[in-house]
Amino acid sequence: MDATTDYSDQVRALFVALSHSGLADGPVVDLARGGMRIQLSANLLDGRLNELRFRAFACPHGLAALEAFCDEFEGRPVADLREYRAAATLERLAIPVEKIGRILLMEDAISALRDRIEALY
After folding, report:
1. Which sign, positive or negative, has the C-alpha torsion 9, 87, 74, 58?
2. 38 vs 27: CA distance, rounded Å
3. Close Cβ partners of 19 (under 8 Å, ≥ 6 residues apart)
4. DSSP conformational letter for 32
5. Cα angle value 13/1/35 (rounded, 5°)
6. How far apart are CA 4 and CA 102, in angstroms?
7. Residue 25 DSSP symbol
8. What is the DSSP letter of 8?
9. Which residue in 26, 54, 67, 77 is a FRET match for 38, CA 20 to 30 A apart?
């Protein structure tokens, strides 16, 4: 594959419309590993993830996965963060298995954000 065919249509669509980039007013986690860095933040309202935002140094797959996560979980109860599974993201976005480390870092960031929110509230 070349650079123009490496990404699924869904990854391309998410990548060009990163509506959740930036940071929210609320708990923030910052994780880095393997050349990737993720800052994930949430604004809460009545026990729900009112706003989810991210900043990341990542490849298009990683950025698209973060955008998809924010789309899926924004508005849901904090407890729903326990439902996130990296394997589902890999499959849904057709992310190559060699990129699994990036998605696992995202899973760790989501878990860390959940733990931080639960500790604060």
Report:
1. negative
2. 14
3. 67
4. E
5. 70
6. 20
7. S
8. -
9. 77
Residue 1: pLDDT over 60: no
pLDDT of residue 5 exceeding 80:
no
Of the candidates 65, 68, 11, 59, the one whose C-alpha atom is nearest the C-alpha of residue 36 is: 59
Mean residue pLDDT across the chain = 94
Does the pTM surpass 0.85? The reply is yes
Give percent helix, percent strand, percent coil of the chain, each to the nearest 5: 50, 25, 30
Residues in the chain: 121
113 with 40: CB under 8 angstroms? yes
- To which residue do tokens 């998410």 refer? 14
Check if the beta carbon of residue 112 is closer than 8 Å to that of residue 29. yes
Q: CA 100 to CA 76: how far, in whole Å? A: 25
pLDDT of residue 6: 86
Cβ atoms of 88 and 96 closer than 8 Å: no
Residue that is written with structure tokens 């590993």 in the block? 33
